[in-house]
Every structure is written in C-alpha cells, then in structure tokens.
Amino acid sequence: MKKIKIAFLHLLPLAGNITHNQQLIEKALTLIQDKKVDWFLTPELAVSGLQFSKKFGTNWINRQPDEWMTNFIKLVKTVNVNVFLGCPEKSADGKLYNTVFVINRSGELIGKQRKISSVTDDWSTSGEFIEPINVEGSKVGIVICADAYTNHVSNTLLAKGAEIIIAPSSWGPGLHGPNGEWEQRSVETNLPFIVCNRTGEDETVSFWEAESSVIKNGKRLLAYQSKQSAVVTFDWDLDRNELLSKEFEVLEML
Question: Residue ranges of the CN hydrolase domain (predicted)?
C-alpha cells in the first residue's frame, strides 16, 4: 500500500484581487505544514478567480514563474508538499493560458497542463499538449474544469499512461453546471477523479453550492461544499487507487 494524504483548497477567491487570493493560498499552505500532506490541490485559476478579466483585465499576467510564484515555490519546499496550482500564464510569444502548474516538494516546477477548452475563457488560448506528469512515481493526469465535458482529454491521458486524474475546477451548479461529466469520465477511463472545486461567486457565476469531490467508478465517494475557504484532507492508496478515509478532515480558514 502506498498511502498518501491529499488536501483540497476549497477556495473563496475574489475575482481580480490577485494579492488577496495569493495570500489565501499561502495561508492554506502554512495551515497544512504539520499535517504531513503529500499533494495540495487548488481549484482552477485560484490565483485570479474565474472571471477576473471582466474586472481587472489581463495586462498583469506574467510568464511563469514570476516573482510571486518563485517565492511561493520556496514556501512549497519549506512545507514539504507537492502542489497543483491554478494560475494564468503568458507564453514567450505573448499568448495567455489557463494553466495548472505542478511544483514538487523539493521546490521544482516539474510540469504544467494548459486548459484545452477555452470556450468560456474569452482571454485564453487553448493548450496544445496533453501529458501526464510524474509526481514521485505516479503518472498524474490533469483535466481542468470544462475539459471534462468530453472524453478527449481524459482518454488521451489514459492512453499516455495516467494512473489518476486531478481535476482543478471552477464549476458551480446551474444552467451550464456539472451534470455527471466527472463521473462519466471516471467510468470510461476506469481512473479516479480527484475534483478540487471552489466556493463564492464571480461576476455572473455562483459557486456557493459547488463541490470538491473524490470520484471512482462513476460514484462520488466524498463531497464537500462550504461558504468560506477551507482545506479538506483525506487519505488515498495510490497502489490500489482506493479511498482510505471515511470522511474529510476539514481545516477552516477563518
């Protein structure tokens, strides 16, 4: 059995308030410092909020790692955890992407996945590459929010050897809310989906009832929603891809 502890940051970000969101992420990371967490997950666009461009524009988006992420990587090393961080980025040719970065516990930026579907992101460019990332011997696939609408991304990750799927999301209930997509993708791939969602609201979207969840074989084994930022943790067996915890441990961020 290869037991690891996984933490969700079920975040209440403020769209466009970059400094506020960065400070919340840092606070959450320090909160788990003594919890022996192995993987720390943030939702999609944790640094910016989903609809930041309507309030704050895109001129602030940098090539990564910028000054803040460089300092954040040092904090990651101090806490001794692997982090999946949702943050916009600018490429060398000036294109903008909705990206999840993977930072290992040694303080190394070991990979990233750019969101493939950009239909709802009027500022971002669709990513071109879909590859699992090796995190301490486990091949981890990343499916960012609406990339779960179809089976393209998840099936590609499966074909390339992914053993587990991380799904950083900003996806709340409503007209275009999740309707069994994560569950269906888990059935098709026979891989667990670890969904890190968020709470709060942006300009036109509400996330108050959005759930972070652990999904396997089409079933939600654990689910969590809240009205404030919180860190929730659970234990997972990587060898057998099985949930070990009966419930989440919740660390509220007051």
Answer: 1-238
Looking at the structure of the chain, the number of domains it has is 1
pLDDT at 175: 62
Is the distance from CB of 173 to CB of 179 less than 8 angstroms? no
Q: Domain limits at 44?
A: 3-252
CA distances from 63 to 27, 31, 60, 66, 92 (A): 24, 28, 10, 6, 7
Beta sheet of 219-224, edge-to-edge order: 133-135, 138-142, 164-168, 193-196, 212-216, 219-224
Taking the model in full, what pTM does it have? 0.97
Burial class (CB in 10 A: 0-12, 13-18, 19+), 179: exposed
DSSP code at position 227 = S
Please list the residues that pair with 140 across neighbouring strands: 133, 164
Beta strand 39-41 pairing with 82-90: parallel
